[in-house]
Structure formats: C-alpha cells, structure tokens
Amino acid sequence: MTTTQHTTTAEERGQGGRTSWGDAAFSLAGQIAALSEHRRGDLAELRRMDPDEPDAAAFWRLMAAHDLLDRGSEAEAQWGLIIHGIALMTPASGGNGNFRTAHDGSLPVGRALYLGSETQRGSAFYSESRLNRLLTARGTVLRTLLNRMFRMLAANGVTFDWREMAQYVLSEGLDDDTYFEQNRRRIAREYYRAERRSSQSGPDNE
To answer: Among 55, 61, 132, 134, which one has the highest count of C-beta atoms within 10 angstroms of its own C-beta?
Structure first.
C-alpha cells in the first residue's frame, strides 16, 4: 500500500472531512433494507454474490452511490464482504414500508456475538473458541470466518453495529496495524463484558 493510499484511508475513517467508513456502512444498511421492500431481486443478488468477486449490479450501484469506486480490487472485496454481510443480516420486510435494517447502533459486535438474540444467556451464542479463531485470523481466513459468522447471525435474526464491523473489516491489512488492533480489542471487551453481565444477572444471583 502506498503512502497516498494510506492517507486516503485515514480520511475515510472520518479524520479528513470525508464520509467515514462507519457512516457509509450505516447508510448502506438503510439502502439495503429498502431493497427488501422494493427491489427484492437486488437483495437476493447481494446475498448470493461471492464477496471476493462481487459482480451483482446492485453492488456496483451501491458502490457508485457512496463514491467507493476506483479504489482497487482489495477495497472492492472488502466492501463486497460488508455489503454481502449486511444483505444477509437484513431482516425480511413486513410490507407496507415496514422494514428493519441489519444495523443496530446500540448493540456492539462483541455483545451481539455473546448474546445472539437474547438479553442474557447462560452460555455464549457465538462460542469462545470461534471468537478466538475470528480475532486471531487475518486475510482469507478472516474473510471466510466473517462470512460464516454473518450467515449464523442472519439465521438467528441477530443485528449489530455495522459501523463497528465495517471499521474492523476495512482496517485489516493496513500498513499500520494499530487501528485494526483497536477494533479487535473492542469486540473482545464487549463480548466478555456481556458474559460478565449475564453471569451476574443469572438465577443464582437474583
């Protein structure tokens, strides 16, 4: 990655007055949720596409709408994974404009992984061993594990903060690993915080 590319990446995180990664993910979640009401064929394409080789017309329209084109194949694959994951986790529309997004800004990724769709649990929805594999993975292995995780969460109707997840996906592979490490630690902290709170509020502590 060149110095120019790295500077642009910093701006995209919201440090240079441009739309941040998180803001883009938030907007994408809303637009993809609207597809469940008005363009279900496009939503189905996003769910079916290979995020490593994104080729759905709906993908390119979304990328163009957020000025994310012409940033290289690596960026396209990263946004492909994000858009694919959002599409998978977008709840089915209830009709009459009643649709929900895959984004829940009040639910950190780590907490969602521990709790799933519950408010408290005796054991983790996403196991500790899976979490450890996810948080130590890089490159192709990380992308594979994230894709599996999105499908698992989607099957159980779980949503989370896609601003946070987008930052995690896009910061992987930067020359400076600091930002990725911060995002990785944030997921771990919220996972174990949810575990602690669940144990404190269990039947034996009531």
So the answer is: 134
